[in-house]
Each structure stands twice: as structure tokens, then as C-alpha cells.
């Protein structure tokens, strides 16, 4: 017996494999289940396997497949093996695939709608049976309709799940509705993909559609679908899901007391948004890994199961105090009822209204999709409205579901284009920051596992942000880092469209007013004079030297020295060094360090310029960030102006690993980047590769260029020419015009005559 | 420092100054035509929007001097906001027909030019009134003056008023401290203010776009006339279509325009994007030749490392498009992609997969051509070095091979070299008022770099084009024209450099950087006229008062500027009097002494 399953995601493989094993143990049918993740386009080798398995399969399941390319290749294969498989079951796919459903007499599309309607109208005995028929008929008609027009909405199906199995009992197992009934039964199993339900789904399909003798002999028993709550709170240590925040808190705090841990408190609670199928199917290891990493930092978690299409529901239910949910105009209350309406395109909200009392201080979405809308669309206006009111940092971390951890490790790309597009670019439009990979499918496992070092990094970054949120401002330490390219004194403060010194000065003034400990120079000019002058000549440096890092200190504090030496030779090297020490260029102003980032280090080094790949930042570059993190010990780093070199250091494109240089340089530091609003592309690199939160700045004032000097004089001549009708005068003016135009190197049309 | 190789083309020379008879031979109609043509050239300079300073973080823009900006914002149709272009409304109100047609005809007819100037004058006056009296008054006045119904003009004025209000309020510092407090920072689009006024308010977390929505329907629509214009211009000047074009694709413009650059490549190939059931652009289909009415142009796409990162799916789409076109059974004279690929397969005895590579970028995890670093740091001795560097950095192929395996940047030096050897034109989009070809070093490193690489591989300098999406009707210009326009409107324009100098230290660095980037164009393309350097020297160095200011405000950048001029002469980019060079050398020495003294 062979069953082949095409699916998308990471939650199905484990229960399928488990079901295969258990069914074999109990019934010994010789069952073989093969499964393919259609989340990304398959390569040729995989397609050969697909074809081999399709040729052998009695039953085929196709689930959640919406990718045009894979579907386009699957469709002709299905047609080729049509005679071989009597049964093809398709759930939640694009219409072309939905129409391939073949179970007994069941065909999707127009006929289904028609047939279902007929059946609904048939006279039956008993109110239950009649209601059941009507309901099944309605669902059937609706599915037929979606098979013709477009994929249905997952959330809509979920509403039927709980009562459908009960009603389906009243539908006769013979007659017009027989196959539709079976389809819906299978669908109910699939919608609650617990290991037991997935096993039952396969058994049910075998029982009714693999009409071989050994099936009949086996006397297969299928338990009715078990149900799980639609939303809830999950914790790996808890015996069951929690239906309410109160229940979770009770359990959490009892456990906390037992283990001498902190009780749940909003200011240190991280709200996590989890996908339901992973929880239901037991594919939770990656979630558990991240949860434990966060708790290891002394933070609390509030892991809520989200409904996939609209995270507002779970957030509103679990992340916000109940008495705060009733405001009539709040986005949260809207989420409880109707979806947010599209607003006018020019949003004038200067600062968001802050009226919710949140139970969380940061939110990390692990759903991998847009906040509102799911995989197929995104309503970012509604998402931003809701998140603005919640007003806590929003992050979206990614699980490697359509590529393996091994492939990701090997790859320079990091996340493949499918994940980068759907799970990075779209959540960014909702305001998600710090796109980390936290786990994924391994070649060795059937369910996602955590990436331990990534989970720890996420957790520690959350902890750093927690400190920014809660520590007294006077204690917080910051680094403001400007650029200088090409490196010479004249270029300190390089930034597109920005006058950097007055900008840094404005930021310092504001920081002091906010209570940070800032030693403020008298003016922006003085700030510049102190930075450019100071002891710079003493060390032949571009700016004042705030710290001379000995090679010993550098080796002790920077874990990457030997890797850098392989590329740049022995520390301290030739760049940003003097007398055997590394120079940290900048000024200390109270708790604020104003520094200057070194460049890539190509200057005066043509051989390095000629390399197609570079391997590491130079010692001076690494030393600056070592100083910031481990000597000056800042709580956050702010880069000033578009743009620097850190985010362009070698490493993966997106979904960085601990081997990637931007990840190493920024480390655990919260990163705020003042960035030109006119440069979304390089800004996005900073967001993705250095976990920056951009604060956009306005482009400079603009005006018409106007005319000046001889250009203005020429226009006068031209106007005079246009105004006069006197031929002689025009001839004279023309001569002056041409002479003037030529003198100005304008095109006077004299060429080629 | 050694001299560069002689350039393979001739620069535009100053003509006819010694020929007083040259204008006697033409009739008055021809004379009128030339006058209007010159007038148009002046208008192009005069009406071009330029930055007049720098931004200071957190500082609100001056509300009074935004009239030109508002006029430019009002010059575009914005269907998404229900707003029509103000000059169109005025022209139609005055029964003068479409403003676009009027503008085109004003190049040939003085009467039409007068009508156009009248329309522009009324539109500007309406904005003056808006700034003084508000939207209702402005709409009322325009109804009287130009018979524009208030219902039509009000949306424009409301939009402009909103822009002005938002410019007056600046929340960047508020948002900065909110971010440091760990609050939610709202996302916002990233673009030029004229292009997309919803970049206001600033102080938000700028985001990119969904790559699966690229190119958007409107980007694809807008790309068609531009590609037509580009090909028509090339055909008019060279007598045929380019056998292949090298396109530079950046994330910068493709994010802001939702993929107009991508769409232009698709149009050149003669294909249209196809969306899947999730509304994602994942495929292309060929436009039949009967419909296309021209050959399919081969394209070599050198994409920035940033584009590669942000538009992974799009690179696969472009690769797919090239392969699809190469496999169409069409006559070679109408399908240059097929023709070039089969020629390459024969000549180089390579496979189809090798010959069909057209999407190139950096090695994975690396960015940039380094051509800018080499130029800024004066580290090259002959032209070939810049061309080789470009190819070394950019010869990594992307897309998907025939076996369906994704190419994650496979080094393919020979394939890129072969593809470039048949290129006859290079091209890039400019999309922004603030970021022009002399504002940053990235334009010359990319468009200059690829042009130099083509020059080396094809043994002839390609035609170099830029599209300019800054005006209402996108316009194709040659590089030479664009450099002249940039030089006149920015570098040499007192309005620009005085604006920069108001920022003191940083302003001098900006001026120097424009001169250096201009020098970068000389280094990569030789497209800079002698007069540009003459005028730079005259404006910033030989004007004693100016030199004094520069050296007081930022002696380091003043020194770099003078040094760069001398380097331009030394490398043969600039021919001028020996006496001027001697003077420049003296000035350089004086500046160096001053810096030593300052230190």
C-alpha cells in the first residue's frame, strides 16, 4: 500500500511518519507513506522521486499547495497516473488542484455544487438528518465554488470543525452524499492535525478507498476526530493548553514559586505568537527551544496560539488586559469584531494613541506570515494600527520550513527567495524588526528543531531591549557612531542628505532632556572641533582617540581575532593602529560615546580591492565594536546617517548565522539607525543584516535649480528675441544668442549643417 | 601617477566660435526653431528640482520655501489618492488641451510655448495662494482664473496642504527616543517625497516591498513608453536596434517604483509578467512578435548586491524570461537573445545553460563593484584595470539552471565576458531628485563600470543612456547630456553650492564629493567635457574669495578638490592651459601648508 502526500510547511511530516509506523505495527498492511514539502520549487532529482512515488501510490493527498511552479508540474503528472490512482484528496489548494479531487464519484467543480444542492433538497426522515444534509450540502456547494474560483479561507473552515463530525453521522454512507461525507470527514481530521487524527485520516482513506482484500480483512477502526481548542496559551511544561490568561498565570506563578523564579509581570513578559498546526501536531521542539532560551534570561513568556490569518485575535485575547479591550475606537476591539477597514492612503497620525494596557512588553511572531492576512495577502494598515496601540516592539522570527538547516548553513543566501519574500519582506511592512532564524527542519528530523545559538541570541537581544525599557535612563550607556568615507578628516560625518554634526548634537540634547547622562558640548561646532582635534595628531588619527586598545585586550575581548588574522595578518595591523595598539576613534561624553566607524580598509591596498570575495572586517573595525560592547559596555548602538559598512560585511543575505560578520559585530546590542527615507534598499539591508531599527529622516529641502550668471543672461536674450517682431533686431539678437549658447556649451544646433 | 590610455571617442568640442558666417545661411524659420530649442534647454535646467541644503535630524523643514516642491508634487497624477496633475487641470480648464501635448508642441511653436508658460504661471500662482490663504481659497481662485472646478482641484490642494503641515512638524527626535525606550516604531515606505508623499511623517522604520509583487501592473505599464523611447532614440542615432543592452538594476529605484527597471528588462525581451493564484509574479509569457513590432533585445543584467538580496524571486523571474525567449522558435533577426546565444554556443562551444546566463551580481555575501574605491583612492594605472575589476566583482551568475537547481552566485567570468562582447548600449534608471549621478559614487561604479567593461570586451564604447523619471514624462538621456545637466543644475549652480555652504564643514565635503564623482565618470566613461573642469576650477579655486571660504570651513575637503582637478589633468581627462595647472599646484601646496599649520 502506498500513500503519497504533497504538503507545505513543517508540521505534517512528523505525524505522517508516526502514523505510518503505528499503522504498520497494528495492521501490517505494508503501508509506505511518502511525503514532499512543496513550500519551495523542487529540483529535478526530487521530481524523479515524485514521479516514481506517484506511479506507485493508491492514495494521494495534496494539501496547502498554492505555488504556481510546483503545481504546474504536478498537474500533468496527476493526469498521467489518473488510471492508477483511484483516489486523490485535495485540501486548501489552488482551484486547478482542487478540481483534481477524485473520491469514488466525487468530482469538485460545478457538478459538486449542483449535486450537493440536489441532495439538500431530497426528502429525508428526521430533523437531524435533514439539517445534516443541508449543512453538508452547503459546505459542498461552497467548496465546489472555491474550487472554481479560488482557494478558500482556512479560518472559515475552522468554524465548522467542531460540529461537523457529529452531524456527519447522520449522513448516509451510501447515495449521492457518500463521497462528500468521506471527504469532509478526512478534512476534519486534517484540520486538527494531532498525531491521532493524522493516523485516523490515513486509516479512513485506506478503509473507504483502498478496496483491497487485505484492507477488508484488516477490519480497520477509525476513531472520530479529536478536537483541540482553536486558540489558547501553550507552555512546554504545562500538561495542557490554557484557555484563558488567568489559568495560565495561575499555573505559571505556581511553577515559578516552586522553582524560585519570577512571577508573570508585563514589563518582562515576551508575547509569542505560535502556529496552531505545530502545536496540535506536536511539532513543537523549535518553539520549546526558543521559550526555554527566553526563560533562561529571566524573562517570562506568554506563548499564544494564533489563528494564522489574523494575529490580532490572539493578541487581543491574551496580550491585553480585559478592561482595556472595550474601547470602541481601538483597533483591538475592532479585531474582536470586524476586520479593520482600509484607511485613506496618506496617514497623518503623528504619534499613535496609546491606550492599551499590555500584558507583554515585546512580541515575537513565530507564525512566519503577515500580522493580518496570512500567507496570501497582508493588510499592513490594520496591522500597524493594532501594533501602534499595543506599542511594544514587534519581531518576526523564521523557522526554516521549506529548506533544511543543513542547506541554510551551507548557503550564502541564507533564507531562500520564497522564505525571504513571504516571511521577511512582508512582516517588515507590518513593522517587524530583527529577522532571525530560530529553528527549522533538519535532514535528520521530521519536525522543526531549534537552532540553539540563534535562540540564545534572540533571547539575549530581548533581554537587552528589556533593559532599555526598564532601567533608569541615567544609567543607560549609548554609542552614536558616524561615518567617514573616503577616510580623511574632511569627510567625518559622511551621510546622504544629512548634516551630521548638528544632527548628532540635536540627538544629544534630546537624550539629555530625556534623562540620559550626557556631557553636552557647547555647540555642534564645538563637538566637531573636539572630535577632529583632541589628541588626533599624536596618533596620526582621523579623530580624537578615546581609547587605545592593546593587542592583549583585543585578543581577550574579541573572539574572532584568529579568523581576522587569517585575512589581515597579525593584530593590530596597519589600519586604525598606532604604536602597537588599536585606536578607538571618538569622544566620550558622559554615558554617551560618539565614535567614527572605520571603512572597509581598501585604501592603499589594491590587491584587496581586486578580490571577488572578502572574508572579514579588519582589526580596527572589529576593535571599535569590541570597545563599544565590552569596554564602554553600551546598552544600545545608534548609527547616524546613510550609510556605513557594518551591514555590508560578509555573511548570508538574510537569516544570518553566528558565522556572519554583521551578526558578530552587532552581537546582542539593540541597534537604532538614523537613515534617509529616500533609501529603502540599503536601509533594508541594515534592517535584515544588522538588526537595525531605522528612524527615517527627511530628504533635504528642494527648489527649482533656476538660472544663474550667463545662463540667466542667455534667457534674457531669448526672451527679447521672442518678444520682438523686428526682423533686423531678431537677426542681431540671434547672433548674440548663438555666441552665448556656444560659450555656455549648450547645443545650438550648429552641428551637421 | 601614470596617464590613462587615450580614449576611444571624441568629446563634444566647442564649435564655430570663429565662424561668424555660420548663421547667415539659415532662414528665419530655422532660426526660430533653434531659439525655441535653446529656450527649451534653459527651461530644462531652470525647472529641475535640486536639493538646496542638507537635512538636520529632527529639524522641521522651512514651510515658506516649499513652493517649488509643492508644484512638483502637484505635477503628477496620483490616482491612488484621487488627485490629478495641476497643470493638466489648468490646461484643460483653459481649453488648451492636454498639458503633455502642449509641452511637446511648445518646442516647435512660440504660440504654444506662451500658452504653456501661462498654464505654468497660473498653476504656480495657485500654489502661492494655497500657501497664503489655504486650500479653499486657492481652489476658488483657480476656478475664476482658469475655470477649474473646485471639486477637481481641491484634492490636489488638500494633498499639498497636508504635505506642508507634515513638513512643519518633525517627529524624528521623538521617534528616536521612543525607539531607545523600546516602543513600537511604525513602518513607513521609503521614497522621494515627490514620488510618494506618504513617506511623511518621517521618523518611521522604512521598509522595502514584497518581491513577488514586482513588477507591479503600473510599473509594467509605465515601462513600455520608456523602452519605446529608448529604442527609438538608439535606432535614430545608430541606424539599428542594439544587439544587446547591459542594464544596471538596483534595489533603490525598483523598490520605489515597484520594479520599473525589472519591467523595462521584460519589455526589451518582449515578455509580460504572469501572476499565480496567490497573486505573485512567478512567470512570464512572450508577447507575440506581431504585437511587439520589433526584435526582442538581448539583455545583460548586472544587479547590485542589494537587489540580489531583496529580489531573489525576481532574479529567478528574469533568468526564466531570458531562457523562455531564447527557446522561442523565431527568426534570429527578430530574436536577438536566441541569435546571440546560439552564436555563443557555436563560438565558445559551450552549453545552452552557459550561454544563457544573463543575471550577474557579486559573489554571495559581497556587495559593490569596488570600481568606486579604486577611482576614489586613485589606485588604477590603465583603463583595463577598472574594466577587469568590474568583471571580477560582478561575474557571479544567478537564476536557476536547467536542472532546476538554484545558482547561488556561480562564478562565470567567461559567460559574462561573452555576453558583454555583443552589448551596444548600457542603461540605468535615475529615480530621485536627491540622488543624482554626481551625488553618490555608486552610479559611476555601476553604469560607468559596466560601460568600461563593455568597451573593453566589445572593443568599442557603448551608447550610454539614463532614464530620468524625475519629470512627469520619463525621458531618456545620454550620459553626456545627463552629466552636463547635473553639472549645470548642481555643481556649478550658486543656488546649490551656496545652499551646501550654509552647512559649513559638511557643505564643502559635498562640493568636493560632486567634483570627485564627476571625475569618476571621466575615469569610467570619458563623458565629461573639458569645460566642466574649467568651470569647476574657475568657480571654486580661482575665485579667491570662494577658495578662502572653502579652506576656512573645511581645508581637508578643499585640498581634496584641488588635488582631484590636478589628477583629472594628469590622467588626461581634462585639457587646459599649463599656466592654470601650475597655479593649481601652487594652491594645493598652500592648502597643505595651511592644514599643517592648522594642525
Write a compact overview of the structure shown.
The complex is a heterodimer of chains A (753) and B (599). By secondary structure, chain A is an alpha/beta fold.
Explain the overall architecture.
The complex is a heterodimer of chains A (753) and B (599). By secondary structure, chain A is an alpha/beta fold. Chain A has four domains: 2-218; 232-339 and 352-470, Rossmann fold (3-Layer(aba) Sandwich); 473-697, no CATH class; 703-753, no CATH class. Chain A contains 30 helices and 23 strands. In chain A, strands 15, 16, 17, 18, 19, 20, 21 and 22 form an eight-stranded mixed sheet that branches. In chain A, α1 (13-27) links the parallel β1 (2-7) and β2. The N and C termini of chain A lie far apart (86 Å). Chain B folds into four domains: 64-168, no CATH class; 172-207, no CATH class; 211-478, no CATH class; 492-598, no CATH class. Chain B has 27 helices and 13 strands. Chain B is globular. By secondary structure, chain B is of the alpha/beta class. Helix content of chain B is 55%, strand content 10%. The longest helix of chain B is centred in the N-terminal third of the chain and has 24 residues, at 110-133. In chain B, α6 (135-146) packs antiparallel against α7 (150-168), α22 (494-501) packs across α23 (505-525) and α23 (505-525) packs parallel to α26 (555-570). In chain B, the strands form three sheets. Chain B has an eight-stranded mixed sheet, sandwiched between helices. Classes of the chains: A alpha/beta (753), B alpha/beta (599). The interface between A and B is large, with 162 and 174 residues.
Amino acid at each position: 500500500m502506498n500513500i503519497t502526500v504533497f504538503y507545505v510547511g513543517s508540521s505534517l511530516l512528523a505525524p505522517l511518519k508516526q502514523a505510518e509506523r503505528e499503522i504498520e505495527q497494528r495492521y501490517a498492511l505494508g503501508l509506505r507513506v511518502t511525503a514532499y514539502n512543496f513550500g519551495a520549487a523542487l529540483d529535478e532529482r526530487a521530481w524523479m522521486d515524485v514521479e516514481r512515488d506517484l506511479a506507485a501510490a493508491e492514495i494521494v493527498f495534496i494539501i496547502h499547495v498554492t505555488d504556481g511552479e510546483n503545481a504546474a508540474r504536478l498537474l500533468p503528472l496527476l493526469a498521467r497516473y489518473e488510471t492508477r490512482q483511484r483516489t486523490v484528496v485535495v485540501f486548501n489548494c489552488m482551484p486547478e488542484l482542487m478540481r483534481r479531487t477524485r473520491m469514488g464519484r466525487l468530482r469538485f467543480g460545478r457538478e459538486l455544487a449542483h449535486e450537493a444542492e440536489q441532495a439538500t433538497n431530497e426528502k429525508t426522515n428526521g430533523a437531524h438528518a435533514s439539517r445534516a444534509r443541508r449543512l453538508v450540502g452547503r459546505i459542498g456547494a461552497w467548496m465546489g465554488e472555491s474550487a472554481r474560483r479560488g482557494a478558500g479561507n482556512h479560518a472559515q473552515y475552522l468554524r465548522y470543525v467542531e460540529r461537523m463530525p457529529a452531524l456527519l453521522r447522520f449522513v448516509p454512507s451510501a447515495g449521492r452524499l457518500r463521497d462528500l461525507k468521506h471527504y469532509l470527514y478526512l478534512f476534519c481530521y486534517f484540520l486538527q492535525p494531532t498525531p491521532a487524527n493524522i493516523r485516523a485520516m490515513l486509516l479512513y482513506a485506506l478503509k473507504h478507498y483502498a478496496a483491497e482484500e487485505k484492507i477488508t480483512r484488516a477490519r480497520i477502526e477509525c476513531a472520530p476526530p479529536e478536537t483541540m481548542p482553536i486558540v489558547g496559551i501553550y507552555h512546554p511544561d504545562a500538561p495542557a493548553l490554557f484557555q484563558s490568561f488567568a489559568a495560565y498565570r495561575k499555573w505559571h506563578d505556581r511553577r515559578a514559586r516552586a522553582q524560585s523564579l519570577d512571577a508573570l509581570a508585563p514589563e518582562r513578559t515576551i508575547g509569542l505568537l505560535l502556529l496552531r498546526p505545530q502545536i496540535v501536531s506536536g511539532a513543537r521542539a523549535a518553539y520549546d527551544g526558543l521559550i526555554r532560551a527566553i526563560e533562561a534570561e529571566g524573562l517570562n513568556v506568554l506563548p499564544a496560539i494564533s489563528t494564522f490569518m489574523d494575529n490580532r485575535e490572539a493578541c487581543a485575547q491574551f496580550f491585553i488586559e480585559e478592561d482595556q479591550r472595550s474601547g470602541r475606537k481601538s483597533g483591538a476591539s475592532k479585531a474582536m469584531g470586524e476586520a479593520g477597514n482600509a484607511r485613506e492612503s496618506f496617514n497623518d497620525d503623528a504619534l499613535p494613541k496609546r491606550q492599551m494596557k499590555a500584558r507583554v512588553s515585546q512580541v515575537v511572531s513565530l507564525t512566519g506570515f503577515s500580522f493580518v492576512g496570512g500567507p496570501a495577502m497582508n493588510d499592513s494598515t490594520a496591522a500597524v494600527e493594532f501594533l501602534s496601540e499595543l506599542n511594544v516592539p514587534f519581531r518576526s522570527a523564521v523557522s526554516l520550513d521549506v529548506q533544511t538547516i543543513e542547506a541554510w548553513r551551507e548557503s550564502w543566501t541564507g533564507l531562500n527567495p520564497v522564505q525571504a519574500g513571504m516571511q521577511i519582506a512582508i512582516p517588515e511592512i507590518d513593522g517587524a524588526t530583527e529577522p532571525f532564524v530560530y529553528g527549522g527542519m533538519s535532514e535528520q528530523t521530521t519536525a522543526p528543531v531549534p537552532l540553539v545559538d540563534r535562540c540564545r541570541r534572540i533571547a539575549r537581544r530581548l533581554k537587552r531591549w528589556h533593559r532599555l525599557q526598564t532601567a533608569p535612563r541615567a544609567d543607560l550607556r549609548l554609542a552614536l557612531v558616524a561615518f567617514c568615507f573616503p577616510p580623511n578628516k574632511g569627510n567625518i560625518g559622511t551621510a546622504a542628505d544629512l548634516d551630521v554634526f548638528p544632527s548628532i548634537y540635536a540627538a544629544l540634547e534630546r537624550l539629555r532632556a530625556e534623562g540620559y547622562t550626557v556631557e553636552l558640548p557647547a555647540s555642534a561646532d564645538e563637538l566637531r572641533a573636539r572630535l577632529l582635534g583632541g589628541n588626533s595628531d599624536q596618533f596620526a588619527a582621523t579623530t580624537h582617540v578615546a581609547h587605545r586598545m592593546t593587542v592583549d585586550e583585543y585578543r581577550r575581548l574579541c573572539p574572532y581575532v584568529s579568523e581576522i588574522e587569517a585575512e589581515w595578518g597579525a593584530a593590530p595591523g596597519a589600519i586604525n593602529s598606532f604604536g602597537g595598539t588599536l585606536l578607538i576613534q571618538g569622544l566620550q561624553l558622559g554615558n554617551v560615546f560618539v565614535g567614527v566607524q572605520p571603512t572597509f580598509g581598501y585604501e592603499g591596498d589594491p590587491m584587496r580591492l581586486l578580490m571577488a570575495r572578502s572574508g572579514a572586517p579588519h582589526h580596527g573595525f572589529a576593535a571599535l565594536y569590541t570597545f563599544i560592547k565590552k569596554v564602554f559596555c553600551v546598552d544600545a548602538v545608534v548609527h547616524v546617517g546613510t550609510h556605513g559598512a557594518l551591514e555590508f560585511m560578509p555573511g548570508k543575505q538574510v537569516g544570518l548565522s553566528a558565522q556572519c560578520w554583521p551578526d558578530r559585530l552587532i552581537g546582542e546590542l539593540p541597534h537604532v539607525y538614523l537613515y534617509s527615507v529616500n533609501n529603502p534598499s540599503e536601509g533594508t539591508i541594515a534592517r535584515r543584516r544588522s538588526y537595525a531599527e531605522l528612524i527615517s529622516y527627511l530628504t533635504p529641502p528642494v527648489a527649482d535649480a533656476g538660472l544663474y550668471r550667463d545662463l540667466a543672461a542667455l534667457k534674457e536674450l531669448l526672451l527679447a528675441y521672442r518678444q520682438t517682431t523686428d526682423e533686423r533686431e531678431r537677426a542681431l539678437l540671434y547672433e548674440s544668442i548663438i555666441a552665448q549658447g556656444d560659450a555656455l556649451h549648450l547645443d545650438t544646433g550648429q552641428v551637421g549643417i | 601617477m601614470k596617464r590613462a590610455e587615450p580614449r576611444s571617442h571624441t568629446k563634444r568640442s566647442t564649435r564655430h566660435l570663429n565662424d561668424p558666417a555660420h548663421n547667415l545661411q539659415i532662414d528665419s524659420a530655422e532660426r526660430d526653431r533653434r531659439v525655441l530649442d535653446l529656450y527649451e534647454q534653459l527651461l530644462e535646467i531652470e525647472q529641475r528640482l535640486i536639493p538646496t541644503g542638507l537635512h538636520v535630524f529632527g529639524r522641521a523643514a522651512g514651510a515658506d520655501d516649499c513652493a517649488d516642491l509643492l508644484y512638483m508634487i502637484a505635477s503628477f497624477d496620483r490616482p491612488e489618492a484621487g488627485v490629478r496633475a495641476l497643470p493638466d487641470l489648468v490646461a484643460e480648464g483653459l481649453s488648451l488641451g492636454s498639458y503633455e501635448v502642449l509641452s511637446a508642441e511648445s518646442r516647435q511653436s512660440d504660440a504654444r510655448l506662451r500658452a504653456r508658460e501661462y498654464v505654468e504661471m497660473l498653476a504656480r500662482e495657485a500654489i502661492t495662494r494655497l500657501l497664503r490663504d489655504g486650500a479653499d481659497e486657492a481652489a476658488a481662485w483657480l476656478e475664476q482664473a482658469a475655470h477649474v472646478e473646485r471639486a477637481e482641484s481641491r484634492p490636489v490642494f488638500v494633498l499639498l496642504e497636508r504635505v506642508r503641515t507634515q513638513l512643519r512638524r518633525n517627529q524624528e527626535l521623538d521617534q528616536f527616543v521612543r525607539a531607545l525606550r523600546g516602543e513600537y516604531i511604525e513602518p513607513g515606505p521609503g521614497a522621494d517625497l515627490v514620488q510618494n508623499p506618504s513617506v511623511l511623517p518621517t521618523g518611521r522604520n522604512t521598509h522595502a516591498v514584497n518581491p513577488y509583487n514586482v513588477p507591479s501592473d503600473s510599473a509594467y505599464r509605465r515601462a513600455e513608453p520608456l523602452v519605446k523611447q529608448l529604442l527609438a532614440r538608439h535606432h535614430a542615432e545608430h541606424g539599428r536596434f542594439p544587439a544587446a543592452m547591459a542594464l544596471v538594476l538596483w534595489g533603490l529605484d525598483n523598490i520605489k517604483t515597484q520594479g520599473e527597471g525589472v519591467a523595462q528588462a521584460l519589455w526589451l525581451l518582449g515578455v509580460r509578467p504572469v501572476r499565480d493564484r496567490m497573486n505573485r509574479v512567478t512567470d512570464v509569457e512572450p508577447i507575440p512578435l506581431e504585437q511587439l513590432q520589433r526584435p526582442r533585445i538581448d539583455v545583460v543584467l548586472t544587479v547590485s548586491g542589494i537587489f540580489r538580496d531583496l529580489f531573489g524571486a525576481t532574479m529567478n523571474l528574469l533568468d526564466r524570461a531570458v531562457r523562455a525567449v531564447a527557446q522561442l522558435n523565431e527568426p534570429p533577426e527578430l530574436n536577438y537573445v536566441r541569435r546571440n546565444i546560439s552564436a555563443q554556443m557555436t563560438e565558445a562551444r559551450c552549453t545552452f545553460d552557459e550561454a544563457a546566463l544573463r543575471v550577474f551580481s557579486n559573489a554571495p555575501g559581497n556587495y559593490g563593484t569596488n570600481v568606486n574605491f579604486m577611482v576614489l583612492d586613485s589606485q588604477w594605472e590603465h583603463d583595463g584595470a577598472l574594466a577587469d575589476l568590474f568583471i571580477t566583482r560582478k561575474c557571479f551568475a544567478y537564476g536557476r539552471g536547467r536542472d532546476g537547481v538554484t545558482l547561488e552566485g556561480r562564478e562565470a567570468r567567461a559567460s559574462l565576458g561573452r555576453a558583454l562582447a555583443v552589448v551596444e548600449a548600457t542603461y540605468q534608471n535615475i529615480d530621485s531628485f536627491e540622488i543624482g549621478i554626481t551625488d553618490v559614487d555608486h552610479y559611476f561604479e555601476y553604469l560607468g563600470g559596466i560601460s568600461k567593461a563593455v568597451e573593453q570586451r566589445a572593443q568599442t564604447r557603448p551608447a550610454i543612456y539614463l532614464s530620468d523619471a524625475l519629470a512627469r514624462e520619463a525621458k531618456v538621456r545620454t550620459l553626456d547630456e545627463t552629466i552636463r545637466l547635473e553639472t549645470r543644475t548642481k555643481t556649478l549652480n550658486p543656488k546649490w553650492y551656496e545652499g551646501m555652504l550654509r552647512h559649513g564643514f559638511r557643505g564643502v565635503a559635498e562640493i568636493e564629493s560632486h567634483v570627485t564623482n564627476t571625475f569618476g565618470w571621466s575615469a569610467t566613461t570619458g563623458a565629461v567635457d573639458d569645460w566642466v573642469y574649467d568651470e569647476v576650477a574657475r568657480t571654486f579655486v580661482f575665485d579667491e574669495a570662494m577658495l578662502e571660504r572653502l579652506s576656512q570651513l573645511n581645508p581637508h575637503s578643499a585640498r581634496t578638490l584641488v588635488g582631484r582637478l590636478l589628477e583629472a589633468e594628469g590622467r588626461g581627462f581634462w585639457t587646459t592651459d599649463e599656466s592654470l595647472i601650475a597655479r593649481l599646484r601652487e594652491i594645493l601646496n598652500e592648502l597643505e601648508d595651511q592644514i599643517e599649520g592648522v594642525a
